[in-house]
Amino acid sequence: MLEAQAINKYIGSSPRKMRLVIDLIRGKSVPEALNILHFSTKHASKVAEKVLRSAISNLQNKEEGSRVEVDSLYVKEAYVDGGPGMKRMLPAPMGRAYRIVKRSNHLTIIVAQREEKKKKGVKPKEKQSSKKITTEKE
Fold first, then answer.
1. What is the DSSP string of the chain?
2. What is the pTM of this model?
3. Which is higher by pLDDT, 64 or 23?
4. Beta bridge partners of 80
5. Which tens digit of pLDDT belongs to each residue from 104-122?
6. CB distance 88 to 100 below 8 Å
């Protein structure tokens, strides 16, 4: 089975916001996932679309001899890990300061080719006519 991954680290949005977008594409076919990401209004979808396109490109470069069709690919895994947080201070009343953590995340997307399911040699059932059709009038 062919598969390739793409990783983008230190993305400047919170992992929680990125997971909202990634949950939409996990397990979907690649054309469908690209369509979802392209028309999503979230900022994280633009970053996720770049990473997905990178994973597709990685798979095509990995298999130079054989041409891989994008239609036969699907998003096998997609997950978001938390990155380091930048700690900042926000001025507060009475000389105090509140701590703010500006979060970042790491995004990993793995694409793979779908395996074609082989159908077993099951014969279709034959229709048995158990009812007799009569055309005689009484």
1. --EEEEEEEEESS-HHHHHHHHHHHTTSBHHHHHHHHHH--SHHHHHHHHHHHHHHHHHHHHT-SSPPPGGGEEEEEEEEEE---EEEEEE-GGG-EEEEEE--EEEEEEEEEPPPPPPP-PPPPPP---SPP-----
2. 0.78
3. 23
4. 107
5. 999 999 999 988 776 666 6
6. yes
* Residue 62 burial (CB count, 10 A): 11
Burial code (b: 16+ CB inside 10 Å, e: under 16) for 93-131 equals eeeeeeeeeebbbbbbbbbbbeeeeeeeeeeeeeeeeee
pLDDT in tens, 124-138: 666 666 666 677 665
Give pLDDT tens digits for 68-97.
Answer: 888 999 999 999 999 999 999 999 999 999
Under 8 Å between Cβ of 113 and 1: yes
Does residue 23 have a pLDDT over 70?
A: yes
Q: How far apart are CA 111 and CA 128, in angstroms?
A: 47
- pLDDT, position 63: 76
Domains, the chain:
3-113 (3.90.470.10)
